[in-house]
Amino acid sequence: MRNKGKQKMFTKDLMKQAFVGSFQKLNPRYMMKNPVMFVVEIGCVITALLTISPNLFDSGNDDLRLYNFIVTVILFITVWFANFAESIAEGRGKAQAASLKKTQTETEAHIIGEDGNMSVVSSSELKKGDVIFVEAGQVIPQDGEVIEGCASVDESAITGESAPVVRESGGDFCSVTGGTTVVSDWLKIRVTSEPGNSFLDRMIALVEGASRQKTPNEIALNTLLVSLTIIFLIVIVSLYPMAMYSNITVSISTLIALMVCLIPTTIGGLLSAIGIAGMDRVTRFNVIAMSGKAVEACGDVDTMILDKTGTITYGNRMASEFYEVEGVDKDEMIRCAAYTCYHDETPEGKSTLDLAKTLVTLEEPKIVETLEFSAQTRMSGIDLADGTKIRKGASDAIIKYVESQKGKIPADLNQIVENISVLGGTPLVVCKDAQVLGVIYLKDTVKPMMKERFARLRAIGIKTIMCTGDNPLTAATIAQEAGVDGFIAECKPEDKIDVIKKEQAEGKIVAMTGDGTNDAPALAQANVGLAMNSGTNAAKEAANMVDLDSDPTKILEVVEIGKQLLITRGSLTTFSIANDIAKYFAILPAMFMSAIPALKVMNIMNLSTSFSAILSALIFNAVIIPCLIPLAIKGVKYKPMSSGKMLARNMMIYGLGGVVTPFIGIKLIDLLIAPLLAVIGL
User: Is residue 121 classed as helix, strand or coil in its secondary structure?
Assistant: First the structure.
């Protein structure tokens, strides 16, 4: 499902929708939400009026009518490009929302009344608290929790994963989502959401951007951009009387052009697109963020709290090694261990058989009776046709069994068992009749590449803490193997809240994952709480992110997406502000060089004419926005490194690049338009 993120960035339908949407966004009431671009739009209106009536504000020059028109067109294109960038970002989200809406079909619901009788109603009539019955082949009409039954559910409409998942009453796998399909057996479900407020409804609203609110960082940056705009506006207004005092004629259109070039229009035009695209990148990764603030908080995470089981390890004990006791043939020990697993469907049994097949040649045993594992006996095994009895189980249980058969306990058995326990593993002792053969070493296997992934997090200053119910010795072993920075052994739900509060008291941003009702308080306390879609409704309600694939390790990638969002916004802001330097050298000499010859030294680009200089800067200011749309949507390439190195790298690329690029771009545009302006007399 992670391949969802590899869809085409631009499609024909997307471009068409964005083209139309960018015109719709020209409405001043909408443009006011983006103060920087609203100022550009006002400038466009003023120059348009000056095109119609050059003497509107002063005794202008009718010869500037064409110049005013060209400035108007460029300003209009600048605003339109900014709207186009936002429409592109929104369009990608709306395309995904459209696919989600296809799963929202009006279905029949079999509701169970208080008297136990069943009646058929429309899914839109269901209310929170209603109890419904769903059997194989039927679509679950509304979000709920299973209160009776056990069934396989196809959640591909939501997650994209084709393999059905088991949903049953009780525990952490009782939550079901409306729009999914029961493929086997039946379920009795209590509805947990009102019509129009299901998990799918909220997903669609968030993906479409209907409920998107600006994040704190976005608001802070927007305030900075508005402040810069006001400052430059005051400067431009002051320039007009100064020019008149110096007997320099400066047209209103030129002042507007100067203002538009100096205010941060590049980042102003791309800011919304960056925020929307950040949400979109998380969504395409099959994670639903309940707000942009959650995505942004991921970029500021300092500490990550991770459950051992399912996140760092597979959660299933797997056979890792066979140890024979003194005087026993190892191959014989392995065969006997494997024979006990021929009808064992547990992960431990399957892994033991698979490992044995790689080490010895096995023949089909003639089994006459199978002894299933139970909590009372704490052992399992088989009886063969020749009367041989093979057993495997906990060391103390097998020792008692062997002693009851008048057998002897090998002197080295306790040492082997103790060594495995010290390593954090589980020892399973194998015996044949009254003879102990050896020990199977079961271990909760750490997932591949976890050590490398934690090293990446450490490189960017994120501390990882593993929570586990294991004893301190086992926890320390797994923590060392996985490469986490710290661990909490014998961890209880309240311990997670305590460590989160402790980290937050030190001013740190904390992220954690969870899926159970007991995780809900900690998920709510954490700055970034990622709940599993397979978990309980309590966990999903408490968290500010939900992973549709129910993969706890995805928190690692989500944090990197959050950091990429912040880096992208910072890099493009740096680039936008750095752009102003070249525009000073282009426009100011063009405006005042005739009256102040000393300013000629600033004309380092040697631009053709004053009109050419102003229009070249204005055109560059407009075309740089669509050039940066792919970067704003895809994001700046993220590399794990310290904050200092990252700042130095981005200042070099986007700071220096922001200074150099306009010099080259404006000069090239000047070379292209100067002959054309000469033809039309400008």
Answer: strand
pLDDT in tens, 235-270: 888 877 877 777 777 788 888 988 888 888 888 888
140: DSSP letter: P
How far is Cα 337 from Cα 359, in angstroms, rounded to an integer? 12
Quick one: average pLDDT of 164-177?
A: 74
For the beta carbon of residue 523, count every other beta carbon within 10 angstroms. Answer: 28
Burial track 31-54 (b if 16+ CB lie within 10 A, e otherwise): beebbbbbbbbebbebbbebbeeb
477, amino acid identity: T
Helical spans, DSSP H, in 384-436 = 395-404, 413-422
User: Is the backbone of residue 358 left (phi > 0), alpha (psi -120 to 50) or beta?
Assistant: alpha
Report how far residue 543's alpha carbon sits from residue 545's, in angstroms, rounded to the nearest whole number.
6
For 192, 533, 678, the CA distances from 147, given in Å and listed in that order, are: 12, 18, 81
pLDDT at residue 59 tops 60: no
**Average pLDDT of the segment spanning 308-333:** 86
Cα torsion 17, 18, 20, 24: sign: positive
Give the mean model confidence (pLDDT) for residues 201-208. 63
Does residue 682 register a pLDDT over 80?
A: no
Query: What is the DSSP secondary structure assignment for residue 651, as one 8-state letter?
Result: I
Do residues 338 and 499 lie in contact, with contact meaning Cβ atoms separated by under 8 Å? no
- pTM to 2 decimal places: 0.68
Nearest C-alpha neighbor of 443 from the set 456, 426, 428 = 426
Distance between CA 366 and CA 384 in Å, rounded? Answer: 6
Report H helices in 199-215. Answer: 199-208
Q: Nearest-5° angle of CA 272, CA 13, CA 208?
A: 40
Q: Is the dihedral of CA 397, 399, 403, 406 positive or negative?
A: positive
Q: Is the dihedral of CA 158, 164, 169, 171 positive or negative?
A: negative
Q: What CA–CA distance (Å, rounded) separates 601 from 191? A: 75
Helices (H) and strands (E) in the chain, counts: 23, 21
Contact 111, 131 (CB under 8 A): yes
State the sign of the Cα–Cα–Cα–Cα dihedral 521, 522, 527, 530.
negative
**Beta-carbon contacts of residue 486 (< 8 Å; ≥ 6 apart):** 463, 464, 465, 466, 479
- Cα–Cα nearest to 25, from 327, 340, 269: 269
Closest by CA position to 466, among listed 480, 449, 448: 480
Rounded to 5, what percent of the chain is helix, strand, coil? 55, 15, 30
CB 323 within 8 A of CB 359: no
Residue 3, pLDDT above cutoff 70: no
Inter-residue contact 271 to 569 (CB < 8 Å): yes
Residue 275 is predicted with a pLDDT of 79
Q: Are 320 and 425 in contact (CB under 8 A)?
A: yes
Catalytic residues: 307
Contact assessment for residue 607 and residue 582, using Cβ atoms and an 8 Å cutoff? no
With tokens 């978990």, the residue in question is 535
CA 401, 407, 408 angle in degrees (round to 5)? 110
